[in-house]
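Bench notes, bay 3.
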Amino acid sequence: MALHEQSMGKTDEWFTPPYIFDDLGCMFDLDVAHPGLQQCSWVPVKRFFIKKDNGLIQSWNGFVWMNPPFGPRNGIVPWLEKFVQHGNGIALTPDRTSAPWWQEYSRKMDQILFVSPKIRFIDVNGNPGRSPAQGTTLMALGENGCLALRNAEWNNLGVMFAPSSKGAW
């Protein structure tokens, strides 16, 4: 099992490491699922919602960063639905290409970056976890998101594609 899978039920508090944001090279207007901890001060964002704010019930504006709680089976679906409705940002998701939710929502994205190597997420104490069994994708909607993913690909963060339903390159 992957490190985040081993901890299911214990915590879904795993944070995106700083190098991801360095490679994206952008500033976000809103982090819709920010941990609200000092150790995550590297997220380049003007404003954020923490767990008690419940980003799913808040109004989103501007260019958003979304690393939602992966949580229980299909727990990411309401987050992706709201992300698609908003239409402007980058979503970090598990690379579960055979999962029905991934199949449905990947088709709605403008671009997707398959991150390589696998992300060693940061735990609540600021330490990187072990390499998970599961990979990660960054999904973009809107011009700013696509530009940031192109930056990340240029910085060798992974390989990108545009879903055919959105018009492949």
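Next record in the batch:
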Amino acid sequence: MPSSFLFWIYFTKLADTNVLMPLAFLLAAWLGCLRRWREAVLWLFLFCSGLAIVAATKIAYIGWGIGITSLDFAGISGHAMRAAAVAPVMGFLSLQSRSRTSIAIALLSSIAFSIAIAVSRLVLHQHSISEVVSGLLLGGLVAAVFLAWSPSRPTVPWNIALSAACAFIAIAGLMAKPAPTERWIERVALYLSGHDQPYRHARMVAPVSPQ
């Protein structure tokens, strides 16, 4: 297997459910501990809404074959959505008390990371262009709505303990086996549709693994 392909296999894991979902909920818990209840609730609502929309598009295709053939669309990319939603928010909050230049660099870096995750899904043939672009747009909307509201609030302090917790969650998530989210979505789709077999796109194969 080419080394470049292996790189993308490992890189795409940075946006796995095991990694970014715990980090997203850690952000909400942290905001709650700081008694920033409105920010915590807003973040949870926006992020969970994004997850629900991703799941709904996949359930619609797997259960009923509802997609957009002309765009090769069979469901929004969850990896792209999670990356575009979580990375900018973490980047902004971690450097909220720094200069505007530092914040701008953090946001641009997080956007570049999100785009790279989207590219990884294309390289690994897990999604089409329409699916990763819609994921980036949805995740970007989640982050933009949250960040548009955050600057009007007092600065949220970021500390070493939180950074260590984020690093621990990321490392643990990367080492763990991928969560069987696609299998869960398929079960829900079949239950709701009443069908015995799922609709499958040609790309819907076993998750790419380095093993």
